[in-house]
Amino acid sequence: MRLEGKRAVVTGAAGGIGSAIARGLADEGAAVACLDLHEAGVQEVAGSLSAVGARAWGWRCDVTDPADVDAAAARSVELMGGIDILCANAGGSQGEMIPFLDLDLDTFRRMIERNLTSVFLCCSAFGRQMAKDGGGAIVVTSSQLAEIVRPGMGHYAAAKGGVKQLVKAMAVDLSPVGIRVNAMAPGPTLTPGNKEMFERPEVREANLRTIPLGRIAEPDEMVGAVIYLASDEATFTTGATILVDGGYTIL
Description:
The chain has about 250 residues and is an alpha/beta fold. It has 8 helices and 7 strands; from the N terminus they run E-H-E-H-E-H-E-H-E-H-E-H-H-H-E. The chain has a 7-stranded parallel beta sheet, with helices on both faces.
């Protein structure tokens, strides 16, 4: 129970990785506020946690809407009494592979908003609350594409590259108020949102050729790094990105 008594918020909690993170935090003793754009899905996740004795809540939040994010931060404090952990997990590519010369401005902007602007908004709103409580830990879900590039994924790589640098900048600026900021960068991971893409033979074969461990990850395999970064075991870790990619980025 490494997070006993901690109060955590998880964005994108209805998704594959987000729901696994929410379960992992609850299993370690944290109270968990689950946020997601998909209301029914996030309420189901929160309900499943409550059913096994966890303190959990779930409601709809658009992490690209400043008013929604501010309201979610206020509601989280009201329900839990404060915030110790933010897992800014919402985002993802959803398999949108577009050659650069076919990439239009609206698509690029949507990718940036979903993956980079959302992190800024959440870390700003929840970070202010955490600072009032004397500090805490922020864990951002990044990607292996913050380190490398794949064809047709320039917009996603740009967004996640920005996330990596933002994590470093926040780590510096928030250290005086006792907030550590780190990232967990998943490699190819099978989730409901990308299942169709990974089932395409050419995509699956390409991933298997480039992953030394020889397979695609499951969402639960992302949780250990998040728990470490959120816990007191990582009290001297900030500004770091832990890659959980099966060795993808070393080739």
